[in-house]
Amino acid sequence: MEYLYDKLIKYREEDVYPMHMPGHKRNLDLMDMVNPYAIDITEIDGFDNLHDAEDILLANMKEAAGIYHADHTHYLINGSTSGILVSIAACTKKGDTVLVARNCHKAVYHAIFLNELVPIYLYPEVDEEYGIHKEITPNQVKKELERNPEIKMVLITSPTYEGIVSDIREIAKVVHSYNIPLVVDEAHGAHLGFSKDFPENSVTCGADLVIHSVHKTLPAFTQTALLHSNGSLVDYDKVKMYLQIYQTSSPSYVLMTGISNCLRMVKEQGVRLFDEYHKNLVEFYEACNKLRNLEVYQPLKLKEDNLPFAFDPSKILIFTHHSSINGNELYDTLLKCYKIQCEMVSKNYVLAMTSIADTKEGFKRLIEALFDIDNRIARQKQQQLNSLFYVTNLRLVLTPYEAYNRKKEGLMLDASMGKIAGEYVYLYPPGIPLVVPGEEITIEVINKIKEYKQAGLHIKGMIDHSSETILVVGEE
To answer: What pTM was estimated for this model as a whole?
Structure first.
């Protein structure tokens, strides 16, 4: 029997560099903490209660609100997932219609299911050169709100998993002109707003509810996050009520301490840490300009070109589409030959996540690995780029809740065209559904699942792990 603790200790000794979350990067020189067992307590005298904070936890959360310029900030120890569930529940009533970006995390879809909501989707355009999703535009939001006056809430993801940032300030103006709230899943942007070299965060741009995963891009424990509340469009009492529903009644003081220490570090050392971090990123991107076959997405060039969307430079996208290898081969080579664990792999690129806890040596290690690989591979005509993660404009026949509660049956994938999906299909990461229960399965969906499988990507959600069959809604 192998135990998890023993495996983690063994892994610690293997010198694998983490180009992935959590953002503390196991950097013990930066993160100093006693043995967690020594400070693992419950709600004893003098240590407050997260669900009715009035002492030290309240003071710490008020400080967090000040750091992010929010009216109210709450610690989340059930991750950003709980913040998304709370936000959507607080903004809607059962059966409401909501406008959400299709490239949202699966937690958004779970909230839609739980509240029996009717979703209308915003589909970001695709960058044809790289095959990644662009931003959601204010004009897109305005058009859908004009067409669908029954919409009660708007939710978008910014930054995306790949680091694309939407114009939240202008989107907030559009949404507020309809007197409804804007929720931003900014799980990947907890580090934004602390330096002029990074985009603003959505709190300062006017969003009503903003969710941050401090563990993704800042030095904090996995599962830690923040929920920021602003303005009066969302009933704050409902936010507090749903926080009690979607968070454990036994919140971890170790995790809460991790949030507190992380934000104290940003407050006290943030200027120096972000300056050093940005310098390392600039040096990395400039060095990668000399790659011949691999290509690193260049936020510095994007900034110079004044393109209509912002990019978070902390996300390093390494493209293979002009080379003789694919994303999977690059990902595996970095891990097996250079002991660099990246965050995500797609058909044509690998995503490396960075943070203020990354070391200069860590960036150097990635640069040297990329140049070594670059010298060993050939350049070739651009590979075909296909937008992954979803198919546009699928017909919603049933709400996700209705579909889930109908009788379902398994069909061979090729025989499912025209049927109503009875299960989710998505890649994880990033957790964006290709098809949602209640949507009509099209030939594009079938071909996309086959494409995922052929590319060696990890398909999740399907009961049939071989992806040969799919659950569909059967006859009543």
So the answer is: 0.93
